[in-house]
Design brief:
This protein is an all-alpha fold and about 325 residues long. The chain has a domain of about 110 residues. The protein is built from 20 helices and 2 strands. The chain has a two-stranded antiparallel ribbon with strand order 1-2. The chain is globular and about 65 Å long.
Length: about 325
């Protein structure tokens, strides 16, 4: 949305861009750590804060509630996760659900288990979720359910109503209460088999399209969902989600990840890695290959990860007396 367009009311622009949310957060952080920011400079603080929001570097090490607060925050976190752990995809290593959660908690300490479980169910089609997954399969599934969480929770309610035999005219548009009352994740085997049988795609498409008319949050493009549902005679909830996760138009709509042909390519990161390897190879103090690899990993994490949160960076600047030794110790 163009903020300079006279056709866009001010209140509508503020609501859609979440400017007031970010301003409130910036003020809250400033008041909480005002002694540190007074030395740093309030004007420079606000400039740095909104610059980090614009560049999608603002979600690193923030609490889960903050990351989930806006679509921009969610997309930014997805991109941070990709940039930090892209090397896992390049190596072809397979990880478990709990291992992916551990990686997520390095970026967001209070990241819950449920979103990781939901992504695993998409990849594994709701089978046993303790199998290993590739980085690309997990990340595209995670992107879908993480960015469109509220919509997909509601679609699950619609899907379960259709499974129960309700007609499209009697399917109730989900509310937050009905979503909270969903059955436990560990469903009985008979229910699991019933869900795998699926529903009529045209009926599901009709209900989902009607729901989109009333849904106030982000949802996948209707053309994508319609295209997926037109390609099969029966469809289950998780097969529907897996098809959406693989759809390039969904990836483009979210805008956090590159297309799949460039998924493992990040020239800026590769250049930093080459520099770090060169530094280690010529370092006279590196007489152990193990210590060299450990140093490389530590430096790579600092280089690969987007800028740390402003509070952490400002604390380093305020506490440092300008000497290299003290700055280094605060970083480690």
């Amino acid at each position: 949305m163009n903020r300079f367009s006279s056709a866009v009311p001010d209140n509508e622009y503020l609501a859609d861009s979440n400017v007031l949310f970010y301003l409130s957060d910036a003020v809250s952080q400033l008041l909480e750590h005002k002694e540190e920011y007074t030395h740093f400079g309030v004007i420079r603080y606000f400039a740095e804060y909104f610059s980090s929001v614009k560049n999608s570097n603002h979600v690193l090490f923030r609490e889960y509630s903050y990351i989930m607060a806006t679509p921009h925050n969610r997309a930014s976190f997805i991109r941070v996760f990709w940039r930090c752990y892209r090397q896992i995809g390049k190596s072809g290593e397979l990880l478990s659900m709990l291992e992916y959660r551990s990686l997520l908690q390095l970026l967001c300490p209070d990241f819950p288990l449920e979103p990781v479980q939901n992504a695993a169910r998409i990849v594994l089609m709701d089978d046993a979720i303790d199998y290993l997954m590739s980085f690309s399969d997990f990340l595209f599934a995670f992107q879908l359910q993480f960015y469109y969480k509220e919509f997909l929770d509601s679609v699950l309610v619609i899907y379960q109503d259709l499974l129960a035999g309700k007609s499209p005219n009697t399917v109730i548009v989900p509310t937050s209460t009905s979503i909270e009352q969903l059955p436990p994740v560990a469903a009985e085997e008979s229910d699991r088999e019933q869900q795998q049988d699926g529903v009529e795609p045209s009926t599901l498409a009709q209900c989902v399209d009607a729901f989109c008319d009333r849904f106030k949050h982000s949802h996948p493009p209707r053309s994508c969902m319609k295209g997926v549902l037109e390609q099969t005679n029966r469809i289950s909830y998780y097969s529907f989600l897996m098809s959406l996760a693989k759809h390039e138009a969904i990836n483009q709509a979210i805008g956090a990840l590159p297309n799949k042909t460039e998924f493992l390519i990040d020239p800026e990161m590769d250049q930093e890695l080459d520099k770090l390897i060169a530094q280690i190879s010529v370092s006279p103090g590196s007489n152990s290959s193990g210590s060299a690899v450990g140093g490389l990993k530590e430096m790579l994490q600092r280089k690969a990860s987007p800028r740390r949160n402003i509070h952490h960076r400002r604390r380093i600047e305020v506490e440092s007396d300008g000497s290299t030794e003290e700055t280094d110790s605060s970083e480690n």
